[in-house]
Amino acid sequence: MASERIVIVGAGPAGVRAAETLVAAGVRPTVLDEAAASGGQIYRRQPAELRRRYGELYGFEAGKARRLHDAFDGLRGRIDYRPDCLVWNLEGKHLQVLHAGAPGTVPFDRLILATGAVERVLPFEGWTLPGVYTLGGAQVALKSQACAVGRRTVFLGCGPLLPYVAYQYARAGADVVAVLDTAPRTAKWRALPDLLTGGATALKGVYYLAWLRAHGVPYPHGVTPVRAQGDQAVEGFRYQDARGRERSLDCDAISFGYGLKSELQLADLAGCRCRFESTSHGWVLDLDSSGRTSVPGIYAAGDGAAIRGAEAAELSGERAARALLGDLGFAGQDAALAKLQRRLRRLDNLRAALETAFPYPRHLARAIPDSEIVCRCEMVSAGEIRSAVRDLGADDINRTKAFCRVGMGRCQGRICEPAAAEIVAAALERELAEVGRFRAQAPVKPVPIAALAEKRPEALAS
Ligand SMILES: Cc1cc2nc3c(=O)[nH]c(=O)nc-3n(C[C@H](O)[C@H](O)[C@H](O)COP(=O)(O)OP(=O)(O)OC[C@H]3O[C@@H](n4cnc5c(N)ncnc54)[C@H](O)[C@@H]3O)c2cc1C
Questions:
Q1: Is the same domain home to 270 and 253?
Q2: Residue 114 in contact with ligand 1 by CB distance below 6 A
Q3: Which percentage of the chain shows pLDDT scores above 90?
Q4: Of all atoms in ligand 1, which is nearest to the CA of residue 87?
């Protein structure tokens, strides 16, 4: 047992709490994260040269951010932490990594995957113009670089990040031209009773909406994106309002997104079972009630297993670590596990309410014009995807990929999968769950060709 090599991928809220729980039991895990510092997405740290206070950076979440950072910093010396370490492949019990630019291999006996989420993107006409960013990209610019993506930004999409990032921009002094929500206004009212059971989390959402309203930021609901305008870069945005009238906005940046999806590639490479979750309209890991995947010795936590938010990520990180400790024979995990499971079930209810308030606009994917690029790595248009189904007989997303190269490029379909799968499902007149998802392939994220050419080097000693 003492010689078991335990590795955690991800030092966001889930990975940090998993590491903390293992250390408290006397175990020394290896923690790998491609980022330069711990904190993950929500509690992303600013570069050392910037000196903004916690309140400025994290708003209402400042206390939680500080606690998480302090907890991780307090583990120094008791974990083997490797920042700037991208895990790009998993084969058997080995992770292939690019650590500070050098290729290497990290062996493990037990693995906790806490890899977080990626944004769901649905292309619209002109979305490849310079000046179009995802909501997360716009937020990273603000949090990490203290700059805005444009002088006059339009925010578009659906999901809790939409009002939040717009609020962060407006609060920081940026010009927020409008927040265009694709969900009908009635969706939020319908979800309100269930949202209010979410306590402080829901109240914060109400606050962001009220703040934007009080500061005169237009926030129309039920909009349909039409196109980003401009020749060389974004100069404006056209959309249809809830009554179908076309409107134009002057702007030099557009920030958009439609919620999140789990980063499943490493779990996929390990052969972990996934399932389709109809509430979020996406794929999640099929875990037992303690965070074990279907592959013995591999556990998962946080948004990388299912999108449940930061609080659930912390709880599920601890849960995965306790399940692992229990499997190693550490006694006394059951009571804590039962408590964590109860708290996580309550957060499941809040997530269901959020999905009602911010319904995923699948109809937008189905309506993407034939001429529009969906997979920008391989420059595959919506029309080519439809043609692979109609003319070449592709009957699922992977056959479609083989026929037209959608999802075959550098991002491995992480960006285009939601739209491509929806287009395939519509062309086949099937449900999304029936067309499947892209099979993961290494490298899960872009790496220099030299990393692939390298013969597997000696395992990095811990
Ligand atoms: C762009 C973006 C912005 C977000 N902003 C907010 C927000 O402002 N407020 C909010 O409540 N929620 C936000 N969320 C959701 C939020 O990230 C989560 O709810 C919470 O951070 C989940 O914690 P986690 O530990 O599961 O994942 P994360 O916090 O995402 O941490 C995952 C970690 O894993 C690392 N990682 C992933 N893959 C690899 C790999 N292959 N190799 C090495 N390291 C890897 C990442 O670098 C990251 O540090 C955001 C999500 C995204 C994608």
A1: no
A2: yes
A3: 84
A4: 42
